[in-house]
Design goal:
The structure is a single chain. The chain is mainly α and 111 residues long. It has one domain. The chain contains 4 helices and no strands.
Amino acid sequence: MTVVRSIVLFVVAALAEIGGAWLIWQGVREHRGLLWMGAGVVALGIYGFVATLQPDASFGRILAAYGGVFVAGSLLWGVVVDGFRPDRWDVLGALVCLVGVAVIMYAPREG
């Protein structure tokens, strides 16, 4: 159950961070204005909070693992929201990152 909770938290954190960055991007690059940018800042704050809910107590481990989730999630966001078409190297890179996440977060540890 702890692994499932951790994965759900990573997904929620990814939605908040990637969504927040996308909202700021839209506000600045697509000239949608301060409301979009403000919503992005709020979403990024939610990401920061959600990351603290991970069962592991190591900040460095959580953020390192989340980096892999961010890579894969960003590509998926691009596919779903922006019509991005990743090539096989994008997909392979994302899979490598997710394997890294699994090793960092869920490998058996002593003590």
